[in-house]
Design goal:
Strand content: 15-25%
CATH class: Mainly Alpha
Number of helices: 2
CATH topology: Helix Hairpins
Number of strands: 4
Shape: rod-shaped
C-alpha cells in the first residue's frame, strides 16, 4: 500500500513539474507574440518613412549605425538556407502575421496539454488523499 502511495506521489510531482515547464513555454510564446507585433508596428512605421530619411539601424543590443532609407517599401527577407528575397512591406507583414498564428496554435496546444496534466494531477491527488486516510 505504501509503495503504491509513493509511486502516485512521484507521478504527481512529475506532472507538477511538467505543468510548470509548459506554463513557462506558454509565457515565452506570449512574449514572442508581443515581439512580432512590435515588428509589425515597425513595418507600419517604415512604410510612412520617406525615401532618403536617415535612421539609426541596430547592429546588436545597444549598438547602432546610421543608415539611409533607399526604398521604404522594399525589404530583404531571409527565407532560410542563407537565401534572401525581396518583399514589400505588406508581404513581410503577412509573414509576421502568419508567424503569430503559428505561435497561437502552438500555445493553444500547450494549454490543452496543461489542462490534461492538471486533470491527471487532481485525480492522483484525490487517490493519494484517499489512500492515506
Amino acid at each position: 500500500m505504501k509503495e503504491d502511495i509513493k509511486e502516485k506521489y512521484m507521478e504527481y510531482k512529475m506532472l507538477a513539474q511538467q505543468i510548470q515547464e509548459l506554463q513557462k513555454q506558454v509565457e515565452n510564446m506570449t512574449e514572442q507574440q508581443a515581439e512580432v507585433k512590435g515588428m509589425i508596428q515597425g513595418l507600419d512605421d517604415l512604410k510612412k518613412t520617406k525615401q532618403g530619411t536617415e535612421i539609426l539601424f541596430p547592429i546588436s543590443s545597444g549598438i547602432f549605425t546610421k543608415a539611409t532609407i533607399k526604398d521604404p517599401n522594399e525589404l530583404l527577407v531571409n527565407v532560410g538556407s542563407n537565401v534572401v528575397v525581396s518583399k514589400d512591406v505588406e508581404s513581410a507583414k503577412k509573414l509576421l502575421e502568419d508567424n503569430i498564428e503559428e505561435i497561437k496554435n502552438t500555445q493553444a496546444h500547450l494549454l490543452a496539454q496543461v489542462e490534461i496534466f492538471a486533470e491527471k494531477a487532481v485525480k492522483l491527488e484525490k487517490e493519494i488523499e484517499a489512500a492515506t486516510q
